[in-house]
From TrEMBL:
Residues 81-295 form the AMP-dependent synthetase/ligase domain. This is Phenylacetate--CoA ligase. Coiled coil: none annotated. GO terms for molecular function: ligase activity. It comes from Azospirillum lipoferum. The keyword Ligase applies. Residues 345-433 form the AMP-dependent ligase C-terminal domain. Keywords: Ligase.
Length: 440
């Protein structure tokens, strides 16, 4: 790709040494800011406060995880004691989904919002979105970052954005036709619902809608070559994993370009990335490296993080210049360090499901199994739940409905509950595996 076609050629084509020099300059300022303004890190890093810490020296500091953020938020609600800016500087608030306990509140300043949008726009442009496109955005515009924040990244790429949101599928299909939409931003599982409606109502074939680009995120599954090929054949559009990220770190830090199905790491002027082995040792970012991605903000105003565990295991697939012209390193997300799974863009933890089931002792014994068929993406939480002792079978349909409601309230995702007899699941003195994985 010619340099003129890149969204930010002044950064996206820099050599590794030039990127690192920029990171060092940004971090020197950021470290002084965080050590002066973040109560959480002043508490966590007492021996380091007041002395210089380089990016190489980060590996001597402890890791931060989501439990640290949750504890800090509970101690200083609603923004947490890791917030580093004045409250008057906060201009946008989001929330995480699929966690146990109270959801995390994510605060951003005007500067934070602008940087997040710029890097996200960089990612969308890499995936093929252009100023001539009209893109319909079909993610939830509630409090999750996938709505408003991803909308801003689409605008930052220069496209005309139609903020459709979720639901009203018939109107969406009509909107695509009426406005001659050329791109869609949604979860990878959503096109299947559109296909079904078109088929059931005798509408046009999906590829006849004229979409040229599908920008997907919020769910796994796009690394499945057969799934991708089927979608491209059915719809006639280019399939891109366009917005890999974590709400508390950077909404979009990785996307696929038009030359590879690997993800480019787009956020190196905002984040310093480490890849750690199981023992916590830093590994070199070079082709073939596998480990957990850990991120440090080198330019963040509201809720800066240092050595934050993403829990994502990544495999580095390339460094140096890509065929698209970008020099950012490439990777694939190969797994999680915990049992989290994704349902229609919502991150779900078995512990959240367990809390929901256990909250209904008159309906269930508290024992259950989550059934995951294939690699995903999933459209709901499939559960087998033991009935409470003595609960008559005639009451099972009502119990299932109440448990589905409880799981949705606690975990944030739709559940389908099948009741099974009391004491029918095995007990164990050790750790219970709540998930049954079944090959598709």
């Amino acid at each position: 790709m010619p340099t003129s076609d890149l969204l930010h050629p002044d950064f996206e084509t820099l050599a590794d040494g030039e990127v690192r020099a920029l990171q060092d300059r940004l971090w020197a300022v950021q470290w002084d800011y965080v050590s002066d303004r973040s109560a959480m890190y002043r508490r966590m890093l007492p021996a380091s406060i007041g002395r210089p810490v380089t990016l190489d020296g980060l590996q001597d500091l402890p890791l931060t995880d989501k439990e640290d953020l949750r504890a800090g938020q509970e101690a200083a609600y609603p923004f947490g004691d890791y917030v580093a800016c004045a409250e008057e500087s906060i201009v946008r608030l989001h929330r995480t989904s699929g966690t146990t306990g109270r959801a995390l509140n994510l605060a951003n300043s005007r500067q934070d919002c602008d940087r997040i949008a710029t890097i996200g726009g960089r990612a969308m442009h890499a995936s093929g979105l252009r100023s001539a496109d009209r893109v319909v955005h079909c993610l939830n515009y509630c409090m999750w970052t996938g709505g408003v924040t991803d909308h801003m990244t689409l605008e930052a790429a220069g496209a005309t954005v139609v903020p459709f949101g979720v639901g009203n599928t018939r109107q969406l299909l009509q909107t695509i036709r009426d406005l001659k939409i050329t791109a869609i931003s949604c979860t990878p599982s959503y096109p299947a619902l559109l296909e079904k409606l078109l088929r059931d109502e005798g509408g046009p074939a999906p590829r006849d809608l004229g979409l040229r680009l599908g920008l997907f995120g919020g769910e796994a599954g796009l690394d499945n070559a057969a799934f991708r090929a089927t979608m491209e054949e059915t719809w006639g559009f280019g399939v891109r994993n366009a917005n890999y990220g974590l709400s508390e770190v950077l909404s979009t830090l990785g996307s696929q370009c038009e030359a590879t199905t690997d993800l480019h790491f787009h956020g190196s002027d905002y984040l310093f990335a480490e890849i750690l082995d199981a023992a916590g040792n830093r590994l070199p970012i070079r082709e073939g490296t596998v480990g957990e991605l850990v991120c440090t903000h080198i330019e963040k105003e509201c809720q800066p993080l240092i050595r934050y565990r993403t829990r994502d295991v990544v495999t580095v697939t390339g460094t140096g210049r890509c065929a698209c012209g970008r020099t950012s390193w490439r990777f694939r997300v190969s797994g999680r360090t915990d049992d989290m799974f994704n349902v229609r863009g919502i991150n779900v933890f078995p512990s959240a499901v367990r809390k929901a089931v256990s909250s209904q002792p008159t309906l269930s014994s508290g024992h259950f199994r989550i059934r995951l068929v294939g690699p995903g993406p999933y459209d709901r939480i499939q559960l087998r739940v033991e009935a409470a002792e003595g609960l008559p079978e005639t009451a099972w349909p009502t119990a299932a409905a109440e448990l589905e409601k409880a799981v949705r309230e606690q975990a944030g995702a739709t559940a389908s509950v099948t009741m099974i007899p009391h004491d029918s699941l095995p007990r164990t003195a050790g750790k219970t595996d709540w998930i049954e994985r079944v090959a598709s």
